[in-house]
Write a structure and sequence with these properties.
The chain is α+β, with helices and mostly antiparallel strands and 229 residues long. It contains four helices and twelve strands, in the order E-H-E-H-E-E-E-E-E-H-E-E-E-E-H-E. The strands form two sheets. A six-stranded mixed beta sheet has the order 3-4-2-1-12-11, with helices on one face. A six-stranded mixed beta sheet has the order 5-6-7-8-10-9, with no helix packed on it. The longest helix has 16 residues, at 129-144.
Length: 229
Amino acid sequence: MIRAASYNIRKSVGLDRQRRPERIVEILNEINADIVALQEVDRRTGARPTTIPRNMIEAETDLKIIDLAIRPDSIGWHGNALLVRKDADIHHARRHDIPRLEPRGAVSADITLHGETLRIVGTHLGLVKRVRQQQIRAITEQLDTLPALPTLIMGDLNEWRPGGSLDQFGETYAIATPGPSFHSSRPVASLDRIILCNRLDLLEGAVHQSELAKIASDHLPIYADIRPA
């Protein structure tokens, strides 16, 4: 079994308007995932520094950062970062350009974990349906050009409806919607999702609703336990 999690951390700023990355790290430890996709991990302006210090992740979690950044102070690409267990092998890491009206992107990596090799993708899609549709098609088309692997796509997909732009994933993928994750103070929208190719089975999915998670960001983290089909 592999546990995958996705979390839009809003640049580590909580509902109390305080930037406290140590809260995000504690929540990651609560979830205890093997794979994590983070959104809004870096600031958007200037050198775009990470809002969670690298040494904090390395020292206080069992996770390591997949090298995706092009700026020395960042850990992500357009705010998207991927973390994996420290004993995972990382084979390839990629940055994916996607259509956008605002700064958006996707990242992926091929890893081996618990004896299984798979591809993980993290993304944060746009606010406009037409653009989200284009972004999903761009991501899946780019993935189709790569050697076939069991694939997991995670992130804040900004889709309020069960179908909507998510129909663009087609029959190759199954959409896991663990539950409402936004707004963390009163969750009503399932903006955060985990997408599995048909070579992976979903065992269980949930929204992580600890007391700390309810104030650390405006999103709640989600997670799913999966295994190869």
